[in-house]
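Reminder: ligand-aware prediction takes two inputs, not one.
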Amino acid sequence: MIISKKMNSALNEQVGNEFGASLQYVSIAAYFSGEGLTELANHFYQQASEERDHAMRFVKYVVDAGGKLEIPAVKAPKGAFKSVAEAVKLSLDWEQTVTRQINDLVDLSTKEGDHITANFLNWFVNEQLEELTTMDNLLKVVKLAGDNLLYVEEYVARHGITKNDGGTGQAAGE
Ligand code: FEO
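Here is what comes back for the chain with MU-OXO-diiron:
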């Protein structure tokens, strides 16, 4: 086995965390959809799908590394929101938590001299920078917009706060 038992169990935990993020974003997307905020809903459905992909990256890595996959119980997501700002703030909080979790995994890999896992985790380190920035910007726009939520819809539609820019914040070709 390429990974230690301790690392195996930490990676299994992260599988649960990423699936948890996916469920939370599905829940947020459904809330936006119910409010008639189609662009935000689409964005969060896509985020949910990306979080599932993150979970699957961990699943495949655990298997490839000869570990034992054990998916933990995933807590039910928050389902009711008082405002768009609350839902977006929760998303930013999630990304901050996930960033801490990824940092802890990197710390463990360093402590164990496990360069293979450290290298695998590098992708997630870069991804977290992108996701934190995206959520932080979105929250700023929501706060600026106040009651004018169509402004937020316009922002999401126009900037396509998806992964088209590869996380650089630059338009394609720049
Ligand atoms: Fe998988 Fe948004 O962190």
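Confidence is low (pLDDT under 50) at residues 164-174. The domain at 5-158 is CATH 1.20.1260.10 (Ferritin). We will return to this case in the review session.
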